[in-house]
Predict the structure.
Amino acid sequence: MDDETPTTPEDSEHDLADGAPSNVVHTDFEPRATKTADSAEDALTELKAMQISFEALSPLAEEARRRAVFWLIEALGLTDLALTGSNSSQPHENPSSYAPASVGKKTVSARDFMSQKKPGSQVERIACLAYYLAHHRDTPHFKASDISALNLEAAGQKFGNLPRDLDNADRQSGYVVSAGQGAKQMTTRGDAVVEALPDREAVKAALHEHPHRQKRSSGGKKSLPDEKSDK
C-alpha cells in the first residue's frame, strides 16, 4: 500500500486556487443570489412608485402638492417620516412641524382632530377646519373648496350653505379674515377659540381676551351678536 502524504491547510488553499475539488461547501451562496434578485426587483418597484408619484404631483400647485403628500403620509401611517432627506444637513421635520402649535406633537388625522375639538356650531366647525389646514397642512390661506374638501376627509356633515357660514365666521365671529384673492386666513381670535375647545369655559375666556367688532353683512344689515352667531 502506497504511503499517503497528509494534506495541510496550506495545500488545501493551493488546491482551491488551482480550481481543484475541495471539501469546503459554501452553503450561503444560493441564499445570497436569491436575496440579490429580490432586492433588485424591490428596487425597480420602488423606482416605479417614485416615477408615478412624481408624474402625478408635478403638475399640481405647491399648496395642492403639499396637501397630497401630507394625505399620503397620514394614509400610509408614516407620520414620523422625515421630509428633508437623509443627506440633508437640515434637521428632520415631520408634517406637524410646519405649525408652531403642533411642534413636538404627532400629527392627528382631520377626523380625529374634529372629534377631539367637538365644535358646537357651523362657524366653530369652519374655525377648526381652517385651523387644521393652517397648522397641520401648511395651508394658512384657504378657500371654501379647501374647507369643503377637508370636511369631507374628516367625515363631517355637509355644510348647507358654506359661503354663508364662511362669511359668518368672518364678519360675525371674527374667527377668519380675508387674505386677498378670495382666500381666507385664521385670526388670533379664531386660533384661541380652537385651541380652547372643547372646554366651553376656556372658549368664553378666549372670546373675552380677543374681542371682535362685528362687521356689517354683505346685505348691509348688522350681524348678530357672537353668542347667537355661533349657534
Observations:
- The first helix runs from residue 9 to 17.
- Strands lie at 176-180, 183-186.
- The chain has ten helices and two strands.
- The radius of gyration is 31 Å.
